[in-house]
Design goal:
The protein has about 475 residues and is of the alpha+beta class. The protein has helices at about 40, 55-65, 160-175, 215-235, 280-290, 295-305, 310-315, 320-335, 340-365, 375-385, 390-405, 410-415, 425-435, 440-445, 455-460, 470-485, and strands at about 5-15, 70, 75, 75-80, 90-95, 100-110, 110-120, 125-130, 135-140, 145-150, 190-200, 210-215, 245-250, 255-260, 270, 275-280, 420, 465-470. It has a 9-stranded mixed sheet. Strands 5-4-15 form a 3-stranded antiparallel sheet, with no helix packed on it. Helix 8 (about 320-335) crosses helix 9 (about 340-365), helix 8 crosses helix 10 and helix 9 crosses helix 10.
Length: about 475
């Protein structure tokens, strides 16, 4: 029997806010343990939570980006459970009325994953089990840090699809600037609900929940392992236990954590200290107006309007700062009234950005926002290259010079003798001279040794102080040799 996997993800996204979700205490990551702990997060008597308005705005942004319906009225609820890293004894979350619902996310062409809901909640503290040989240590800095939980429909069918889905979420939250999306630091966390069923049937199998996946690679490997484990059980005539399992990357296996039959009843009820969240149409429209162009829209434009290769479009849209830089440079080159077609302009800029710009950022460990060559200056460099004012090697030299020299590119090019000679009336006499000085080589060419044309081109190039256009030199040498052959 052939089985198929049915996978849904619950993703927790830690938001970029200066203060916590319900208190003014700092939400800074990486502080010394228990430095950002306040009475509200600890649930001390007499304290009252106040919802951070930025959390609402961030939730609406993500909901719009994921094509969700935004609730005009949603409720904050208390989720009760006892655990040492939750000092209040309950977590403020949402249950029956989330702020966003019924959306979708396209992970690739033709693969749409349903989004059940996005809701607001606060993070718990951190239990450290490996810092002391006897005791578990508690760090409450993370208590109250704002989260969005993104719950997908069970539409994913493999670990690879789950990996891609997670990467799309990270790309979106970074584009929207609502989270840094770093799985390694815990600002993007994921639990997977995994089951299998006979292919072609609609009945869901018994699911397990997988935790402790700290990277995209872990997500993919853990899900694929769990699918194989469940299929092996069913083929042996055994049943799958409804349980929570932990992924161990060292052994590449999942291990039981607890039975779902023993899971907590969280006793959700509306938080009496917090009013309903109201999102008016005007507020939603204002948030939507301030959103950036999203990666899928840009990708479509780059491929279909700018006629860039799909690979170029993928690289340019992967991170928002790169896409913004590209579009600013393209706008600058268009405003210069270039005679070159728009696709040629886009491709020239794409070549520089994907090659020289991204390489330099990586080598020098520079963020795109701090890259020393402004988009307008890169546009001028691309314009010089498209006009054949400079050659490819000269363009490389000029780019390197522009990193530390903020003068106009054309000024640097003239000073460094990089301007390409492209006047036929200047190059043609040199071609005639080289052919006249090398009669034996000309005779070899005329007898059929056409590969020797490179010798003539090299000789012509060396006669110039600057850099003659190689294409023009090749054309003139070929024309003159053809004329002599006839």
């Amino acid at each position: 029997m052939v089985y198929e996997s049915v996978i849904g993800l619950e993703v927790h996204c830690q938001l970029l806010t200066a203060s916590k979700a319900f208190s003014p205490d700092s939400a800074e990551f990486g502080a010394a343990p228990n430095q950002h702990v306040d009475p509200v997060s600890l649930g001390l008597p007499g304290t009252l939570p106040v919802l951070n308005a930025k959390v609402i705005a961030h939730a609406v942004r993500l909901g719009l980006a994921m094509n969700c319906e935004i609730s005009e009225r949603s409720i904050l609820a208390r989720k009760h459970y006892f655990y040492p890293d939750l000092p209040k004894g309950y977590q403020i979350s949402q249950f029956e009325q989330p702020i966003c619902a019924a959306g979708h996310l396209d992970i690739e062409a033709g693969r749409r994953i349903g989004i059940t809901r996005i809701h607001i909640e606060e993070d718990a503290g951190k239990s450290l089990h490996d810092q002391d040989p006897v005791h578990t240590l508690l760090d409450y800095n993370r208590c109250g840090v704002p989260l969005l939980e993104i719950v997908s429909e069970p539409d994913l069918r493999s670990g690879a699809e789950a990996n891609r889905y997670m990467q799309k979420i990270r790309q979106l939250v970074r584009y929207l600037e609502i989270s840094d999306g770093n799985m390694e630091e815990g600002s993007l966390r994921c639990d997977a609900n995994v089951s299998v069923r006979p292919k072609g049937t609609q009945t869901l199998g018994t699911k397990t929940e997988i935790k402790n996946m700290n990277s995209f690679r872990h997500v993919e490997r853990a899900i694929d392992y769990e699918v194989q484990r469940q299929v092996a059980l069913l083929r042996r005539g055994e049943s799958v236990t409804h349980e929570t399992r932990l992924w161990d990357d060292t052994s590449a296996e999942t291990f039981p954590m607890r039975s779902k039959e023993e899971a907590h009843d969280y006793r959700y009820f509306p938080d009496p200290d917090l009013p309903p969240i109201l999102v008016t149409e005007a507020a939603k429209a204002a948030i939507e107006e301030g959103m950036p162009r999203l990666p899928d829209e840009r990708y479509h434009d780059y491929v279909h309007t700018l006629q860039l290769p799909e690979y170029d479009a993928q690289v340019l849209t992967d991170e928002r700062p790169v896409a913004d830089y590209f579009e600013q440079a393209l706008e600058a080159i268009q405003s210069s009234r270039s005679d070159h077609p728009l696709p040629d302009q886009a491709k020239a800029l794409s070549n520089f950005i994907m090659g020289d710009v991204l390489r330099t950022c990586k080598e020098k460990e520079v963020r795109m926002a701090d890259f020393p060559i402004q988009p307008e200056r890169l546009a001028k460099l691309a314009h010089l290259r498209m006009d054949a004012t400079i050659g490819s090697s000269a363009a490389q030299s000029l780019f390197e010079a522009m990193i530390t020299d903020d003068r106009p590119p054309e000024v640097i090019a003239r000073e460094r003798n990089l301007i390409q000679v492209s006047d036929r009336s200047v190059v043609h006499p040199v071609v005639d001279l080289v052919l006249a000085e090398n009669p034996k080589q000309v005779a070899l060419y005329l007898r059929g040794k056409e590969s020797i044309i490179g010798f003539f081109i090299g000789q012509v190039m060396r006669r110039f102080d600057g850099a003659p256009d190689p294409k023009l030199v090749h054309t003139l040498v070929k024309e003159e040799l053809t004329r002599r052959r006839s």
